[in-house]
Amino acid sequence: MKKKKILIAGSGGQLGSEFVKRLGQGDYECLAPGEASFNITDHSGTKNIITELKPDIIINCAAYNAVDDAEDNAEAAFTVNRDAVINLAEISREKGISFVHYSSDYVFDGAKMDFYIEDDMPNPLGVYGKSKLEGEMAALEILKDCLVFRLSWVFGRGRQNFLFKLSQWAEKNRVLKVSADEVSVPTYTGHIVEATLAALHKGLTGLYHMTSSGYASRYELARYYLEKTGRDNLVIPVPMSSFPVKAKRPGFSAMSNMKLGGVPGISLPRWKEGVDALL
Questions:
Q1: Cα dihedral 107, 109, 115, 116 sign
Q2: One pLDDT digit (tens) per residue for the chain, 279 residues
Q3: Catalytic: 128?
Q4: Residue 91 and residue 93: Cα distance in Å, rounded?
Q5: Domain of 36: which CATH number?
Q6: Domain-embedded: residue 245
Q7: What's the whole-model pTM score?
Q8: Which residue is catalytic, options 128, 188, 208, 225?
Q9: Does 261 reside within a domain?
Q10: CB 22 within 8 Å of CB 194
């Protein structure tokens, strides 16, 4: 039986590289050109690559996710998180390719103070969240049978995540101050990959919240990670307002994974299991 070809956009990032690692184990043929040859902001170049490679599925792991920088670079954020997504969705529709895209919990403002479900009204607080919302809406409008997954607090084998930065801080500082009133769901890239492939196998379409189970504050996540790595840093809980940042962040952006987790064969482990798996 011929293997289906999956094209990974953003293969060099922490989520994209996790897909490349997993897909190399044999279920699919993995196509993972580097950003130099597959830059999704180059619309004509993107179409040429897709036409040449003829993938069955495109998984878009590319994103502009510098939340604070986006406040000063709105055009760059929207170019990657909205315009490039529109182009990918239109190409996928034209060529009959299955399309998977990832959005963010930052499409919400945190005012609900309860788990967000897929039907809740988004209200992003900053440029990053607005760009991700417009990207997901465009994908779902252009391609009725695409898959859009909202993720939160993604961590994996990379440098662009909270746990890597925490490790660096912990090496240089005995005492760490971490926000205790910023709450969401830490989610491991390995679990995202497995759940995505399971969803594709099931033929799912539409919008889903793909998070680990449970929830945590930055403080709780930091405490757990440092304890598991054998560090003895003193971690002090402080409010988000202790840190001067450009972009306003939702206080409680935890999303319910019940819609996706209720599908037989799709596993969404607890966030602590994700930390354990990473370590």
A1: negative
A2: 688 999 999 999 999 999 999 997 777 999 999 988 999 999 999 999 999 999 999 999 999 999 999 999 999 999 999 999 999 999 999 999 999 999 999 999 999 999 999 999 999 999 999 999 999 999 999 999 999 999 999 999 988 899 999 999 999 999 999 999 999 999 999 999 999 999 999 999 999 999 999 999 999 999 999 999 999 999 999 999 999 899 999 999 999 999 999 999 999 999 999 999 999
A3: yes
A4: 5
A5: 3.40.50.720
A6: no
A7: 0.96
A8: 128
A9: yes
A10: yes
